[in-house]
Amino acid sequence: MGIFKRFRDMTMASINDLLDKAEDPVKMLTQFLRDMEQDINEAEVAVAKQIAVEKKFKQQVEEAEEMVAKRDAQAMRALEQDNEDLARRALQDKKEQQIRYDEMKKQFDVSKENADRLRSQLSEMKDEFNKMKNKKDLLIARAEAAKAQKQINQAMSGFGTDNASRGFDRMSEKVLQMEAEAEASNELRSGNRSLDDELNKLEKSSGVDDDLAELRARMQAKKQS
Fold first, then answer.
1. pTM for this model (two decimals)
2. Average pLDDT for residues 56-71, to the nearest whole number?
3. pLDDT tens digits for 125-176?
4. Which of 130, 137, 134 is nearest to 40 (CA)?
5. Is residue 142 part of a domain?
């Protein structure tokens, strides 16, 4: 049956292949299990139909077997009562019932074999489905770990490359330039401050000389008086 063949094709390799293509492994695994569960439900319906066929043939076999035994007993009683004609008719019907029994028995054997095979396959499907359910969390964890590793690898692929090194060198040169400019500005400012200090000193010195000249003038005036 197509259902069982399709289910047998659902192996761990196919799951891993789906995970490789999946953008969301959680959703993909959930959908995968949902599909498997649907296949199981369809298989159960198919198995139930085959079991019904098996039971039907079994009933017909049992009925034919009972008729064979019944006609045999009836033929014996008829013969015991010296009714040979009735015994012949009973034996003739017994033959027909035996033919029917043989045919129904063949059909029953085939239907039972099919039903047993489908039962076994359905059991395997359910076992595999339960295994997949148990492995779902593990597969999701593996998928998430692989996804994280892939992201890290992509990030690391550009880490420490020549472009990055050149970028750091440019930034280092820029910082050195900024420091040099700051130092030059500070020296210029310091030079301007020294000139101002000297001029201020000159102004202060000029004031003292004036005071000293005034003081000498006063002393001279006092002597003359």
1. 0.52
2. 94
3. 999 888 888 888 787 788 778 888 888 887 777 655 566 667 777 888 888 8
4. 130
5. yes
Residue 15 within a domain: yes
Q: What type of residue is 225?
A: S
Residue 74 lies in a domain: yes
Q: Is residue 180 part of a domain?
A: no
Q: Helices (DSSP H) in 81-161: which residue ranges? A: 84-157
Q: What per-residue confidence (pLDDT) applies to 18?
A: 56
| 162, 166, 168, 172 alpha-carbon torsion, rounded to 10° | 150
**Dist. CA 79–CA 74, nearest whole Å:** 9
Question: Is 138:12 a contact under the CB 8 Å cutoff?
Answer: no
Boundaries of domain holding 94 = 2-157
Structure tokens at 200: 């201020």
Is the separation of the CB atoms in 158 and 164 below 8 Å? yes
Q: How many CA atoms lie within 13 A of 105 on its CB side?
A: 10
Kindly tell me if the per-residue pLDDT of 4 is higher than 90. Answer: no
CATH of the domain at 104: 1.10.287
- Split into its structural domains, the chain has a count of 1
